[in-house]
Amino acid sequence: MLVIAHRGASGNAPENTLAAFKKAVALGATFIETDLQLTRDARFVAIHDATLNRTTNGQGAVNDMTLAELRRLDAGSWFGSEFAGERIPTLEEILQFSKKNDVVFYLELKPAGSWKMPGLPVVTTLQTGSHTV
Fold it and tell me: Which domains does the chain have, with CATH numbers?
């Protein structure tokens, strides 16, 4: 049986954060789906929405912000005070987490802004460790 965590263990921790990914692994997930958006300076970060409003203490479009600006935001407090200070993870952090925890990530690239390609959803699978997909 495959256990796939949608945006990490998003019912137990703020979605698309390292806390959600850690909880997913602790609950037995071997696959984690996460969403990636591009920043203004062309860095991939894990966030579902095109805007910051719902899952961070910031406002506005993800692709209008640089990685440095996004890293200052709190992506955990909206879910619970115990997650205060949780940050939006970068693709590099996701890859490190994947390798360290022997978990496969399904990476959904969310085209937006100047990077948008209408009608072209992009889904990629990351293979690490002993998993074969």
Answer: 36-126 (3.20.20.190)
